[in-house]
């Protein structure tokens, strides 16, 4: 599949060379300097065997974009974190998913890009936003990728994207390495799923088509995770009108098989998802469902291989929550979720809450599992002189049949964004 995606990648460049006249997405047009300050306080309170954990860290992202000259431009972002004296001498008492076990200082983005009319081509270290390869940006530093990316928008509402990545920088790493979240071990890629600790990986290629209009949001993506798995996802959401109250429905289908050297063994995964909801002026309530059937003899009994989300809880399944996911459980199963979310007070307040119940596979096919999660999420975005300042608190209460029994995860996040045109 990797060869086929590579051919599609080349074809995209040929097609883009002389097509339409719409601007490609992403990236400012002129010189720009940005700063983003974050101060996060994460706590985990367990009722079971593990000791409670905490992390209180600050981070800063300093970015610059050169502005375009004949379509060419440069961009860079430097990230740094510090534990503010809160690091415990005992690593078992630290929530290491926030910033790892030591300060981070890394040039997390450094890229050259060419932008003309409806086409953008970017090469170098950068953020990637696709369903199965994304920044997972809920910590101090996002995940980043060393990649070549091409994005085209030939028609209104239609976006075509191809990418080839060769290295990964996790949310807790100081460098780009030929790894993914299955290579997590010790202080490398903290929070990842592990399982291939002594290996390195050759990256991934992907091709996607996304279409959006007033009533539809459709996407189709094909991924080749080199020597691990090939994955296809199809997803659609349809809104029935734009009245004060209107229903919407959604569906998703995922199919995955092994790729190349099969370092995770045989892969045979299928996932289905459905969503039904109602929306009104930025407020939505939905009922969601996902199912991953068991396939004995395959990886995790039929579980989904996801090298850049496993352990992060950032996969695109409808029932993935702040701290739980069918993909992260590495087993077949099913889940039902309820979600309420919306914007209030002239979009300055965002509220969200949800409940999800996860069920495991039948005995004999995979380890029995079951858990439930209740999430609360509230954010306030300041206006006027304090524009760019925001405060957010996310709380998850998880009941599980595992040894952790129950824990409450609280994430308080303070952020201040500044963007200034260069002189």
Category from helices, strands and their pairing: mainly beta
Query: How would you describe the shape?
Result: globular
CATH topology annotation: Porin
Overall mean pLDDT score? 89
Number of strands: 18
- Tell me the quaternary state: single chain
**CA-atom Rg in angstroms:** 21 Å
Number of domains: 1
- The helix/strand series, from N terminus to C terminus, equals HEEEEEEEEEEEEEEEEEE
State the end-to-end CA separation.
47 Å
Q: Name the CATH superfamily assignment.
A: Porin
CATH architecture: Beta Barrel
In DSSP terms (H or I, runs of 4 or more residues), the helix count works out at 1
**Amount of helix:** under 10%
**What's the main sheet like?**
18 strands, antiparallel, barrel
**What is the CATH class designation?**
Mainly Beta
């Amino acid at each position: 599949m990797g060869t086929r995606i590579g051919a599609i990648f080349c074809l995209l460049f040929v097609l883009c060379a002389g097509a339409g006249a719409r601007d490609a997405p992403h990236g400012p047009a002129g010189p720009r300097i940005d700063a983003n300050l974050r101060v996060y306080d994460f706590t985990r309170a367990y009722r079971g065997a593990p000791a409670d954990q905490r992390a209180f860290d600050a981070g800063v992202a300093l970015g610059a974009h050169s502005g375009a000259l004949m379509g060419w431009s440069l961009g860079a972002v430097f990230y740094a974190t510090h534990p503010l004296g809160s690091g415990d001498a005992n690593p078992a008492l630290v929530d290491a998913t926030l910033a790892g076990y030591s300060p981070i200082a890394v040039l997390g983005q450094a890229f050259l890009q060419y932008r003309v009319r409806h086409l953008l081509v970017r090469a170098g270290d950068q953020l990637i936003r696709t369903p199965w390869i994304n920044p997972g940006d809920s910590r101090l530093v996002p995940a980043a990728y060393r990649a070549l990316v091409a994005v085209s928008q030939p028609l209104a509402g239609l976006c075509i994207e191809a990418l080839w990545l060769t290295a990964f920088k996790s949310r807790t790493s100081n460098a780009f390495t030929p790894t993914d979240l299955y290579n997590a071990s010790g202080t490398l890629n903290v929070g990842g799923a592990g399982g291939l600790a002594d290996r390195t990986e050759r990256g991934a290629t992907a091709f996607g088509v996304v279409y959006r209009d007033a009533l539809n949001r459709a996407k189709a993506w094909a991924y080749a995770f080199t020597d691990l798995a090939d994955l296809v996802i199809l997803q659609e959401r349809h809104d029935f009108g734009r009245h004060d109250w209107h229903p919407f429905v959604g569906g998703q289908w995922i199919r995955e098989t092994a790729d190349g050297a099969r370092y995770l063994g045989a892969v045979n995964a299928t996932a289905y998802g459905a969503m039904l909801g109602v929306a009104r002026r930025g407020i939505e309530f939905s009922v969601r469902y996902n199912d991953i059937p068991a396939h004995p003899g395959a990886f995790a009994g039929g579980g989904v291989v996801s090298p850049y989300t496993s352990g992060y809880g950032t996969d695109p399944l409808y029932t993935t929550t702040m701290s739980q996911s069918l993909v992260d459980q590495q087993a077949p199963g099913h889940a039902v979720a309820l979600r309420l979310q919306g914007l209030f007070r002239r979009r300055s307040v965002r509220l969200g809450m949800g409940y999800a119940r996860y069920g495991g596979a039948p005995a004999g096919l995979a380890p029995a599992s079951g858990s439930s999660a209740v999430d609360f999420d509230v954010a306030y975005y300041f206006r006027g002189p304090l524009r760019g300042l925001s405060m957010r608190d996310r709380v998850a209460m998880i009941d599980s049949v595992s040894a952790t029994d129950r824990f409450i995860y609280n994430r308080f996040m303070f952020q201040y964004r500044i963007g200034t045109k260069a002189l």
